[in-house]
Amino acid sequence: MKKILITGCSSGFGKAILKQFYKKYQIITLSRRIPNTINKKYFDFYRTDLSDFNSLEYTLKKIKKKYCYVENIINNAGVFELSKFDNIDKKKIDKFFNINVFSPVLIMNFFLPLMKKNNYGRIINITSGAPLNCFKNASIYSASKSALNAFSLTASKEYSKYNIKINLFSPGYVKTEMQPDAKKKPQHSVKYLKILLDPKKNLFKGKFLWPKYTIPLTID
Question: N or C: the chain end with fewer CB closer than 10 Å?
Answer without folding.
Answer: C
